[in-house]
């Protein structure tokens, strides 16, 4: 059986993974996709910017939907289930990318704001694929970590869970890795509102790489002014638009790219291809190899302080200060508009993960520090 496949234009490797089963592969702009563009489609492959629901799929022959993402808040899964359309996403595909993004953020804050983050109390909200890796990485540095995940706790999976309010009161740095949900017992829509943010210690830090609407924009701005809250955002309350007052209020900004490592993107497509092959009883191709990772010469970043030296090396892979500057430069008077936000993501430069990177000429003391960040290749 051969399929007509419609895939988001920003998904890598669709051709090598899907061409063995494809009558056609058509690339489309995910944000503006309409039912009309799916009138002959058997398979729909999307990213987070396509709302997949009754409006999009009614009257189309689509019989498989895949999203090369961790998050699923753009998918009406109950509609798909009701229509018996199999749906797969890519749990965990870019979790390591988000961890690496966070480490770069912390290194930038260490250098620019002397934030000695590894000695602080860090609260992690949402302990799934991303949050659990984040918590474990902090523990490598000996950091005290508090965790909040009421869903896992209710299932008896997270005995160390503390409630959100206690976590906010006790943490110097809060990292949000929760999904965006609008229903259920533990909905996260605007979960971080003015009352909750007011619980955070003065001048503490809030970092969100989960979903934007988990935090209320007006509450963030108020907490910045009233409580000196320091803010880092990869995801935005009204994404894809970003208001200039909010962009001005944050210390570091990026256009929803925490998950954008090459490794994460490759894995997302691969997971969908394997799920697709299994669903239709087909044989998946073996692999699409990743390009070789990069080598960084430690001597180019030498500093007398080993923590600073390691930070400079992490920032050589990815520096969120660059994204911050690009977003500010690209914004108009009142907002960074949706089209510009999407363009920044579409044209995003290739980023490699820490674990794919080789460090050359690092002395033992530096190697020891770099291993804490997840570097494993040295020469
Ligand atoms: N910025 C980016 O580029 C990326 C963002 N994401 C976002 O990060 C989110 C987390 O990713 P994963 O860890 O892979 O997802 P996951 O589904 O593995 O874990 C999410 C965790 O959040 C927990 N959770 C649900 N409601 C909660 C609440 N009210 N309070 C605290 N925790 C709650 C769940 O129980 C679950 O353990 C995704 O849903 C996605 O929206 C994911 C990848 C990249
Ligand atoms: O996987 C997720 O969930 C994410 O947030 C992705 O990194 C979002 O990337 P796009 O699908 O919007 O390209």
TrEMBL record:
The active site is at 211, 239, 256 (proton donor). Residues 116-258 form the D-isomer specific 2-hydroxyacid dehydrogenase NAD-binding domain. Substrate binds at residues 48, 69, 260. Keywords: Cytoplasm, NAD, Oxidoreductase, Pyridoxine biosynthesis. Pathway: Cofactor biosynthesis; pyridoxine 5'-phosphate biosynthesis; pyridoxine 5'-phosphate from D-erythrose 4-phosphate: step 2/5. Its main location: cytoplasm. NAD(+) binds at residues 149, 234, 259. It comes from the Bacteria. It is found in: Cytoplasm. Belongs to the D-isomer specific 2-hydroxyacid dehydrogenase family. PdxB subfamily. Homodimer. Catalyzes the oxidation of erythronate-4-phosphate to 3-hydroxy-2-oxo-4-phosphonooxybutanoate. This is Erythronate-4-phosphate dehydrogenase. The gene is pdxB.
